[in-house]
Write a structure and sequence with these properties.
The complex is a heterodimer of chains A (about 425) and B (about 140). In chain A, about 40% of the residues lie in helices and about 20% in strands. Chain A is α+β, with helices and mostly antiparallel strands. The chains are: A alpha+beta (about 425), B mainly beta (about 140).
Amino acid sequence: MYALVDAVSFYASAEKVFDPSIRNKPVVVLTNNDGCICAVCPIARRLGIPKFKPYFQIKALLQKHGVVVRSSNYELYADLSERMMNVISRYCDNQYIYSIDESFLQFKNYSGVIKDWHQYGHEIRRAIWKETRLPVGVGFGTTSTLAKAANHAAKKLTGYNGVAIIDNAQSAKDILEKMDVNEVWGVGSKISQRLKQQNINTAHQLSMQCPKIMRKQFSVITERTVNELNGVSCLTWDDVKEPKREIFSTRSFGQRIVDIHALHAALTTHSTIVAKKVRRQSSLIKKLLIFASSSPHDENYYKQAMVYKFPVATDNSCDIAKAVSLVLADIFMPGVRFSRCGVGAIALESRHYQQPDLFLPDNSNPILMNCLDSINNRYGQGTLTLGAEGKSDSWEMKRHFLSPQYTSNWRHIPKIRC
Amino acid sequence: MKVIPIYIEAGISGFESPAAEYKELGLSLDKLLIRHPNATFIGQASGESMQGVGIFDGDLLIVDRSLTARNGDVVVANYNGCFVCKLIDKKQARLLSASKDFAPVSITPEDDFQLEGIVTRSIRLHHQAPELTACMH
């Protein structure tokens, strides 16, 4: 048996943990730079507040309903995620943390121990709620894909109340019939569009397809997905979550930039963010895209992008920052009021399958990079930076509606009235 | 059991600092004070109503959500959208202060009320901690 445990609108729920004054209010959370809505709590959802809309477009609607707006408080979410995952880990000896708020569990040889999965699911929910004040949904299934489908039902379909189980053909049919094919784990938006053209609209219809034909038309992953929907376990958790093929860091400036040093600092910071993400998935950068532009609403719209190709693929922040310095002069234009810039790793290679070059030295410095990442993970982003990142914060993320860092900053710990 | 690796050195390299081998053995206040780290949070007391049980304005409160409150426990609760620290009177559904200047508060069905956790420790800072100064007022 497999299970997927995940939090109900995690970011919005996390905002309510240490702020009891908003527990019964509609809450939404905005993305980086307060751009879009990325989480809507159930109360706000019932008011019809849509997800993924730009904030400025629905500002009036939010005000009308008295919706509480928050910027993304990553420090808080990371801490609560760790607590939640630790509580979940007590319930199974094989846990796989799939994302900040999702965890798979695989139960091998538990049939003698757990008699009632339904009750067990509710036990997990109760423990997480009691200990962390986060609401979760629990889905059980005979495969990972079915566990994910059951989890969807537990949270979204009426009558399930937070726990759903798919352990036979009937319970599978009941849930998969009500599930859109694009909600199936491993079916991307492109594949689901093509499936719908063939009149395969629900997860149940997908499960009725011939796996071999699906493999020919789509991919081996789709074939396995069909098998999984029929209770044949064949996906590993990593199959569906491939390492990213491109990694970008880009953002609009809080204020326009006209100075080459400020642009240099911003681009260098983006490059170190990309480098860190690249290291986290054990990749190396072969090609780096570096770009900057004025606003498309400006009269003389200016945009410049350069690709830097590394002779030897690297994950060394210093090398990547050097590449930025080399192309800076070609990107900067005096007189342009830059509103946006960014850096993207557009060709990545795996660290594990690296062919060394006979003539070129390998400049990667894993010991130094490991040290850099450990210090920044322990003491917070930006504790240790490259000199070229500068100290100016005028271009940093806009987070106007940021809640306190209740669990990671002494000055922000919750006040308790006596 | 903890294995402490000690290397046998040859040649004239001097002695290692004897302290170097014992780094792991220091006392940890976290371990002493926090039994259930995933279910525990730290808050700061604000007000005078709990002085009878030794909780003063500005004290740190260690709150464990995993424990079940017994009658008379020092608890933290969400009372109408605000974290409060009180003694719980489960029999009469009341929040009691540990000070004669504050009357008991009855919890009614109209109130928004949830128990948040048990105060397992409170910490008095006899010298100001600079990390906390922004919260004192």
